[in-house]
Amino acid sequence: MGIQKQKDKPSNWFSNNTILELRIAKKIMLGCKFGRILRYLHCCDPTKTGMNDNGEYDPLYKVGELMRALQARWNILFVPYQQLSLDETLLRAFGRMKFKVQIISKLARYGIKLYMVTDTTTSYVLKVLVYTGKYTYQESTSESMKKMVQVVQQLVEPSRGLFRTVYVDQFYTSIDLIKELHEMQLFVMGTVLSNRIPKNITIAKLSKQFKEMERGDAVKHVFHYKDKGGQDQKAGLVCWKDQNIVYSMMNDMTTLTMDECMRRGQGEV
Known about the structure:
Blueprint: H1 10-13, H2 23-28, H3 31-40, H4 64-77, E1 83-92, E2 101-102, E3 110-119, E4 125-130, H5 144-156, E5 165-168, H6 175-183, E6 187-192, H7 208-212, E7 218-226, E8 232-241, E9 245-250
Parallel strand pairs: 1-5, 5-6
Antiparallel strand pairs: 1-3, 2-3, 3-4, 6-9, 7-8, 8-9
Helix pairs in contact: 5-6
């Protein structure tokens, strides 16, 4: 159904009505057989109670074993290119689940929130992390910024030591993320909120520097930080002016060149 999308109910696929029927499905099995499989399908031992080996509850225990098997195969069958993309999406769902969320900006407003990392060249999914509330993060972490670092760490773990570049948005980008991915020998690049960078390099909207900048102008900075081993490291920051200042941060210091882009729908640089 991912190839030939149908909005009708599965019961209509096996109908004798030529408008509603799905010929491929009718050639594979009978409709009553499909109904029995759909009704009794389980991905785990039905005697399991949801407690893992550590005595903690796992909200995904019914599909966890299948998900781990699939993700292991995804990493075996494909070697990603240099650039990876990390973002969240919403899987539409109406069932009774404690971790069902509402995101107004998404097309499906209610459902299961998924964190995903994909290969930018082929859009191949490398790993998926299901948001299950407090069970998604470690108990010792309380700050939202720290939680997002944990999410990124879990998703890019298969690429540890491969020096891939991970592209994220301002929801994830922070100096803490740069430090953690530096230890994993990975690069990170993405927009960042102004309250997550040093104040001395931010450009206030009412400042003289902001008023003198034209739309499309950019200012580059290089700031230093210390990694876990106490060694000095560098990270780049670009302050680009649109209607407001847009900040982009990266720790790949080989990408210091600047380019121009066209604004969609307006034809402006």
